[in-house]
Design a protein that fits this description.
Number of strands: 2
Distance between the termini: 44 Å
Helix content: over 70%
Oligomer: single chain
Radius of gyration: 21 Å
Strand order of the largest sheet: 1-2
Number of helices: 16
């Protein structure tokens, strides 16, 4: 298949963008060169979940591994729906209950099936042609601990940004929804990159964790500290520094993934928008996590292979 030109045509920007998006979502290929535009890299990131879905559907072994957690969860939700269907006609009531329970329990597979998803990521790397690797399998207790840490970060970390938006005259209350949306997209990508991390030959889980934790503090922690340094009122400045320290400790295990996002900002933005669309699509959202794992495995695999990816030891505070 002929790949569209790397040079965007100003006369046909929409056709150019659609051509790039189609090429990136069909062919297994590395990210655009560093000299390419941010839009081109964002389109590459946006196409990755679509490519991940295509890879899953074309590989029966990967698809079987991907469907197992979703089928277990769906079976449990179906049992609940038939035992306690709620109000409405026979099938409508049960479908409503099914989706309510499924939505409420959506985070559970990421904890209970954490080791399964880690093995899926390693299998995906191998199937995509990046060589032999090992899964980053975490104990159940550690997976639960990280889920709780992330829950605190998702709610508490966005609070300062929400306060700033709310303080904007006239528009604050109308724009306050933007903060949780953008913050949520940020953590969707962090989750996807975290799920797709693997162990290189000879590397232990402790080695990989220590390497990631040597990365610099996340961008929001550095932002909090920078703002604190410019606040003349000491009590407020000290409070913000304390808050920055708390969020830094909570985010320690995701330093590697967040630094990776910072180093590849345009692709990460495209990836987040596409995964958000996938999450909002009925039926396909059953495959949300496996699709993002395969997509992130492809993205990270190419970055590591061509040297454009992230090494925690190279980005330090």
């Amino acid at each position: 298949m002929e790949i569209p030109s790397l040079v965007r045509s100003d006369r046909k920007p929409i056709r150019w963008a659609l051509g790039r998006l189609r090429a990136y979502s069909v062919d297994l290929q590395p990210p655009p060169a560093a000299r390419s535009s941010r839009l081109d890299r964002a389109l590459y990131g946006f196409a990755q979940p679509m490519l991940g879905l295509r890879v899953l559907l074309s590989d029966s072994e990967l698809l079987g591994e991907a469907l197992l957690p979703a089928l277990v969860l769906a079976a449990f939700c179906a049992v609940v729906a038939f035992i306690k269907p709620g109000e409405g006609t026979f099938w409508i009531a049960r479908l409503k209950t099914f989706y309510k329970v499924f939505a409420g329990l959506a985070p559970v597979p990421s904890i209970l099936f954490a080791k399964h998803y880690a093995r899926l990521a390693a299998l995906a790397r191998w199937r995509l042609g990046f060589g032999v690797c090992g899964p980053r399998e975490l104990p159940l207790a550690e997976s639960l601990k990280r889920a709780l840490q992330q829950l605190v970060l998702v709610y508490a970390g966005a609070f300062p940004f929400w306060l700033v938006i709310r303080a904007v005259p006239f528009l604050g209350r109308r724009l306050e929804f933007v903060v949780p949306v953008l913050w949520g997209l940020h953590w969707v990508v962090v989750d996807a990159f975290d799920d797709a991390r693997i162990l290189r030959p000879g590397e232990t889980l402790r080695d990989a964790e220590m390497e990631d934790q040597r990365a610099q503090s996340p961008w929001f922690v550095r932002l909090f500290r920078t703002v604190a340094d410019r606040i003349p009122f000491a009590p407020f400045a000290n409070l913000l520094r304390w808050f920055a320290g708390v969020t830094d400790r909570l985010a320690l295990v995701w330093r590697g993934e967040i630094a990776l996002m910072e180093a590849n900002g345009a692709a990460a933005i495209g990836f987040s928008l596409s995964t958000a669309a996938l999450l909002a699509t009925p039926i396909l959202n059953l495959l949300f996590r496996p699709v993002t794992i395969v997509a992130a495995s492809h993205l990270l695999g190419h970055m590591e292979k061509d040297g454009t990816g992230f090494s925690a030891a190279e980005i330090r505070s």
